[in-house]
């Protein structure tokens, strides 16, 4: 096939794959709603829609300008005789963007990816985070935090250039956004959980975590199916856009994505079956999504046997991470967003340095480039997210009052229940 025809076919396929990503939105929204209590179910779904909309608008206004594209206009810092690219300097509102160019496709993908990352903190702030505060937090995340790291990884920034300037592997590689989308969103979720504090009655007076079960396990598990389809589009389109993967590689990416997700699901089910006597449905579903998050770094570079290892570790990690965060850090994360996206994403980033080969991308020392990327997420992106949310919480109250939690987010902020037949929660009003 002539190169021009191949390029056109890759562009068309990439565009179609990007259109699958919103199914991941639907999957995560259903899971967040199902893992929360019934009195906040409608609030959870509406918050997802609002956050997606705010993230998309802000990204179009300024996010893509900061993210940029490889070889595009950018600000750089010169040290040691080398110029380190640190932030894009494009034009706002996609101005001057050629609609038929690869940059336009990158802008479209970036908007979808930014919205997906912005959804992740909703799970950690469920049942107590105001809609207005979530929207304000999303403005900062989509307008600064996300595009800054996305530039470093995808826009020709210093992380992607580690191989060229320092000979560290092929530079930081993240074909589907395990770091850019999943870990960045998950670490932002951690900052939200810390700023908000735990839900009322989550911890006993002795500090022991109490179970607050979700209201709809069917929503939770059905969300996994939708997320899987969205991830097929996410991993495949990113590999084509940022790493030049050929259309013929898409089936392998889909196989690797699916294997990672289901091996993680099985690992979580086996661990919970061993520890608790029966498999835990919600933790197994979280393991599934953690497998998807971990797959995003290296699905385009790995062989199926390697993806099985990535998935098994991701699924096992989630089951212990959820417990560890509650028991030792006293963090209340109703949907497990931190364990799923931050832990799963960081594991995927690091695993891609040890498991996988892709000519022109992975070279000797790739593990070090991946570790540097993970360290940047934990050491820079997380403090940035925490500081921005802590400051914003002093300007706009993040948390609803106690009566709002008792009443439920649906009635308190929306004036209507998702389930009108369930209008009283006497057991909660009786708690002090």
Question: Descriptors for this entry?
Answer:
2 strands, two-stranded antiparallel sheet, disordered N terminus, Ammonium transporter fold, globular, mainly alpha, 432 residues
Commentary on this structure:
There is one protein chain. This protein is globular. The chain has 16 helices and two strands. The chain has a two-stranded antiparallel sheet with strand order 1-2. The protein has a single domain, classed as Ammonium transporter AmtB like domains (Ammonium transporter fold), CATH 1.10.3430.10. It has 432 residues and is mainly α. Strand 1 and strand 2 (82-88) form a beta hairpin. Helix 5 packs antiparallel against helix 7 (178-196) and helix 7 packs antiparallel against helix 12. Residues 1-6 have low confidence and may be disordered. Helix content is 67%, strand content 3%.
Compose a concise summary of this entry:
With 432 residues, the chain is mainly alpha-helical. It has helices at residues 3-18, 22-35, 41-67, 102-124, 131-154, 162-166, 178-196, 217-243, 250-276, 281-298, 304-329, 337-354, 366-395, 402-407, 409-414, 426-429; strands at 74-79, 82-88. The protein contains 16 helices and two strands.
N-to-C span: 71 Å
Strand content: under 5%
What is the CATH H-level superfamily? Ammonium transporter AmtB like domains
Please give the CATH class: Mainly Alpha
Radius of gyration: 21 Å
Any idea of the CATH topology?
Ammonium transporter fold
The parts where pLDDT drops under 50 for at least 5 residues are 1-6
Discrete helix count: 16
How many individual β-strands? 2
Rough outline: globular
Strand arrangement across the biggest beta sheet: 1-2
Kindly state the percentage of residues in helix.
Answer: 55-70%
Quickly give the structural class.
Answer: mainly alpha
Secondary-structure element string: HHHEEHHHHHHHHHHHHH
Summarize model confidence as the mean pLDDT. Answer: 92
CATH architecture: Orthogonal Bundle
Domain module count: 1
Strand count, sense and closure of the main sheet?
Answer: 2 strands, antiparallel
